[in-house]
Amino acid sequence: MKLARLLAIFCAITGWQAAAQTWDTSGNGMLNGTYYFREVVYFGSNGTLTRAIALYGNISFNGSGTYTINCTNCVMDSAYGAPQSYALSGTYSISASGYGFLSSTISSTDRVYGLVSQQGTQQGIFIGSSTESTFNGGFNDIFIAAPLASPMPTNATFKGSYWIADMDTANGIGSMFQVNPDGAGNLGNVTLTGYVEGYGSSVATQTASAVKYSFSGGAAVVAFPSPSNATLIAGQKYLYFSPDGNFVFGGSPTGWDFLVGVRTASGTPGFGGLYYQAGMDVSSVFDTYYGSLNANPNTGVAVGHQRVRDVLDGYLYGYTYSDAYSVKSDGTYSNTFMRYVVGAGGVRIGSGIGPYLGLNVALPAPSFSGSGVFINPAGVVNAASSAPFTAGIAPGDFITIYGANLAPDTATASVVPFPTKLDGVQVTVNGLPAPVQFVSPGQISAIVPYASGSSTAQIQVINNNVPSNTVTMAVNLTAPGVFTVPPGGVGHGAVLHADYSLVTAQNPAQVGETVSVYLTGLGTVNPMISDGSAGVFSQTNNPVEVYIGGLAAPTSYVGLAPQLAGLYQINVAIPSGVTAGDNTLEILGPDSDAAEALIPVGSATGTSASSVEPQPAVARRHMPRRAPSK
Question: Domain map of the chain by residue range?
Answer without folding.
Answer: 2-14+479-605, 28-94+98-150+254-260+267-363, 155-236, 368-474
